Input
Amino acid sequence: MGEYICPHCKNPIYDEEALLCLYCGESLRRKTGVMGKLKYPRPKIIAAVVVFLVLISFIILILR
Ligand SMILES: [Zn+2]
Output
């Protein structure tokens, strides 16, 4: 049920918690986290990370 196909090497990943591909080491969630895999159990974390990054970049802009 939790099978995920690595976009880089096309190998199936069965570990839902895996952040990196077990075969090629590429990140699994960064590129498909929002667009392709909305069924992720933790969309709130992704949204939180996005908000955090926006805040950080905003602060950096202000401090320049
Ligand atoms: Zn891979």
Observations:
- The chain has one domain: 4-63.
- The pocket of zinc ion is lined by residues 6, 8-9, 11, 21, 23-24, 26 (CB under 6 Å).
